[in-house]
Write a structure and sequence with these properties.
11% strand, alpha/beta, 5 strands, 44% helix
Length: 234
């Protein structure tokens, strides 16, 4: 697929994902739209991300994961590392693994920062069951293994908090899935970080008031990446 065609497909599919959230890219929208639309969007994103990677030299930072990653527009890091956004709105871990199958970067990232987990917390997916947690951990381990072959380092970001008013989500699962990430890195040698610490309230899974736009997405993401500038640049 040519870069131009990939961009057209990404824009067309992205319009479906953007509907209904007042302009915010929404994982819940992607889920309701159905797996086929998400796969089409991911395919388009893979072409766009690959094309964009051609303008970067080896050593950049890749932001991977779901809409939390795709919405991020951080500045280059203090060490001068540029940023490639490889987020896929709507993605669960299994979806992102499929996205990576279609992604062929032209240059090698120094660090990949992965934000996943929110899409696993929809109550309709029974997020509190052990089966859901085990599946998430297994898929995440596969992602880390894949990314470890593509980049020098892999960092798993803690699951972002949800507003107390976020309908349809199980905020208790935020801490549980973050623990699962730590287990994956203990086995596979990746790193963990919490870019979203300043957005959290006293409860790890609950966002402070007025730090989300729709109960799920943060009002801005630049602060999150500034918080981990040091670890990324070491």
């Amino acid at each position: 697929m040519s870069p131009t065609r990939a961009r057209i497909l990404a824009v067309t599919s992205g319009a479906v994902l953007l509907a209904g959230l007042g302009g915010a890219i929404g994982h819940a929208v992607a889920s309701r739209a159905g797996g086929s639309k998400l796969r089409a969007y991911a395919e388009g994103r893979a072409g766009v991300v690959a094309a964009q990677s051609g303008s970067l030299a080896d050593g950049f930072v890749m932001l991977a994961g779901d809409s939390h990653a795709e919405l991020a527009l951080p500045e280059p890091f203090s060490c001068g590392r540029r940023v490639l956004n490889a987020g896929v709105s709507g993605a669960k871990a299994e979806d992102y693994l499929a996205f990576l199958d279609a992604l062929h970067l032209k240059h090698r990232p120094a660090v990949v920062v992965v934000t996943l987990g929110t899409n696993h917390l929809l109550r309709k997916r029974n997020p509190s069951t052990r089966e859901t947690g085990d599946r998430y951990e297994a898929d995440l381990a596969a992602i880390v293994t894949r990314l470890s072959g593509m980049a020098d380092r892999v960092v798993l970001a803690a699951v972002p908090p949800l507003a107390a008013t976020a309908d349809g989500f199980d905020s208790a699962g935020v801490a549980e899935l973050t623990k699962r990430q730590a287990a994956v890195c203990a086995r596979l040698g990746c790193e963990t970080a919490d870019p979203y610490r300043s957005y959290r309230g006293e409860d790890f899974g609950i966002a402070r008031p007025e730090t989300t736009t729709d109960g799920v997405h943060l009002t801005e993401y630049a602060t999150a990446y500034r918080a981990i500038d040091g670890p990324i640049c070491r």
